[in-house]
């Protein structure tokens, strides 16, 4: 999934008025968390997309786990625009996808 595909998908699922810069902040937050909390990458080595990034850049996580990006962004939109009830619901969906990815990653990349 590219950054543009993610933004287009989120805009379709949860129409919003947030620009690409705000959404890019959210992408950096979730990719940074994945890299440090799941992959064990040191913060100094984390991939971070700058303001002038090519929106056709492929994101770190591919299918079938890329949905965690969308649900993180949907949760952030809900937090800011729809209140705590909507945020809690979308956060639960995001956490489900986060946990699925974490289990898969640990199973396939850290097997002893």
Question: Which properties best describe this structure?
Answer:
112 residues, mainly alpha, 0% strand, globular
Structural features, described:
Helices cover 63% and strands 0% of the residues. The protein has 112 residues and is mainly α. It has one domain.
Rounded average pLDDT: 93
Query: Radius of gyration from the CA trace?
Result: 14 Å
Into how many domains do the coordinates divide? 1
Q: What oligomeric state do these chains adopt?
A: single chain
How many DSSP E strands?
0
- Determine the N-to-C terminus distance: 30 Å
> How does the helix and strand content classify structurally?
mainly alpha
Largest sheet features: none
Percentage of residues assigned to helices: 55-70%
Treating each run of at least 4 consecutive H or I residues as one helix, how many helices?
4
Uncertain spans, ≥5 residues at pLDDT below 50?
A: none
Name the overall outline: globular
Residue share in β-strands = under 5%
Order of helices and strands: HHHH
């Amino acid at each position: 999934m590219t950054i543009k595909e993610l933004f287009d998908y989120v805009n379709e699922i949860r129409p919003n008025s947030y620009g690409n810069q705000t959404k890019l902040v959210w992408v950096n937050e979730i990719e940074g968390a994945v890299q440090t909390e799941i992959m064990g990458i040191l913060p100094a080595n984390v991939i971070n997309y700058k303001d002038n990034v090519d929106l056709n850049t492929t994101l770190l996580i591919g299918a079938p786990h890329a949905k965690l990006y969308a649900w993180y962004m949907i949760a952030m939109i809900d937090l800011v625009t729809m209140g705590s009830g909507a945020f809690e619901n979308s956060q639960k969906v995001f956490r489900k996808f986060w946990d699925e990815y974490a289990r898969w990653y640990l199973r396939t990349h850290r097997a002893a």
